[in-house]
Amino acid sequence: MDSHLSVTTARLGRIVEEAASEVYIFSAGDFRFRLVNKGARENLGYTLEELRQITPWDIKPRLNREAFLEIIKPLELGEIERLDFETVHCRKDGTEYNVSVRLQIFEEDGDRVFYAAIQDTTARHQIEADLRNVSGRLDAILDNTTMAVFLMDDRQHCVFMNKAAERLTGYTFAETSGRPLHDVIHHTYPDGSAFPLSECAIDRALPERSGMQGEEIFVHKDGSFYPVAFTASPFQDHEGRVGTIIEVRNISEEKRNKEARDLLMREVDHRARNVLAIVHSLVALTRAPDVEAYKDIVAGRINALSRAQTSLANRSWEGGRLEDVVREELAALCPKDQVHVSGPEIGLTPEQVQPISLLLHELATNANKYGAFARDGGHLSVTWKLIQRQVAIEWREAGGPPVAEPTREGFGSTLKNRVVRQINGSITRSWEPTGLIVEVRFPL
After folding, report:
1. Is the pTM of this model over 0.70?
2. Looking at residue 184, which CATH number applies to its domain?
3. pLDDT tens digits for 365-396?
4. Domain edge (last residue) among 227, 250, 273
5. Quick one: which of 276, 292, 277, 283 has its CA closest to 411?
6. Whole-number average pLDDT of the chain
7. What is the number of structural domains in the chain?
8. Given 3-state DSSP classes, what are the helix, strand and coil percentages for the chain, each rounded to the nearest 5?
9. CA gap 323, 343 in Å, rounded
10. Same domain membership, residue 245 and residue 215
């Protein structure tokens, strides 16, 4: 019997000696180490003889004697059967490593001894630190991205929302947690009718095991609707749990920009057709005694159109000031020091700028050929005022050769009448002895 016990004890000793974890046995009286296995000795760098001269707190740089005794007090008093805690060990060379300690008390030959099984947790701590770093970076990315990110479980319940998702929907994660996401932000069509879950493309991603993407209309917490672009992707984690990751962005601004671009393109198309139609009329109806004169007349009228287009473009096609249109057109054709311009501030619509520019061009051309600027000493006054929400422009020439009402109307007169009709206005002309007087009226 004693032989068998000796063999068993020897085997147990070899198992302890070769154990992967560090094993320590120390007295409950003087706390001197009695046994330290091979793994512990090699890790610490001490011999067994050296270890028998020190105590557990001597290899624990974060704990002194009092702190160590306070930790093990419940075990000594029999309040607990086992004590688990984490601390740091210091090797003989001064390097440190993290350990997990499991401590128990046994009776041995009438003495109480502590049995400590210790695991080196340095690698685990490093892994945990790395995971915390990765998790922190991921949290930072998710919290700072403008893309709204949702995570749904296999029941289509919301289990995660980043800050962008909270801003997008108006809901906090706490308000959506544990609820089907569809019931929170996607439950109604824009016309107010119910939107069944079965018709939702986002929620089909998981059951169909297929990524979905497209555009939808979400419902904000305040009840307003807004368009979104989404991508819904099914996933399965390492534990076999399944769900759906949803990325969403608000495309309201994109929609507005597209509508604005479409409107602008239609407007550009309309204006281009309008200009081309006018140019076609100018070319087709202009009369002249010879080719050179014809070229000069057409070029002058097209240049007037060009100045009007430039004026509109400089103001983003939002219209213009009457004074600017008058001054720009007269500056191109008339002597600056022989022209007087005055009138109140009046804004023109884009549809008014071009006809008024053409009208002023025809009047200035006639003034140069037959009127105030046909000889030295002539001058021109262009003034305007408001009369019962109508703009009244007066063109008054003086100092030129005698004028008389023409016996027939040329294309210039026809053009004047046409452009005045374009602005829903009227034109009157008076050939006074002092010079030509023209009054044009059109609605403000």
Report:
1. no
2. 3.30.450.20
3. 888 888 888 888 889 999 999 988 899 999 99
4. 250
5. 283
6. 82
7. 3
8. 45, 30, 25
9. 7
10. yes
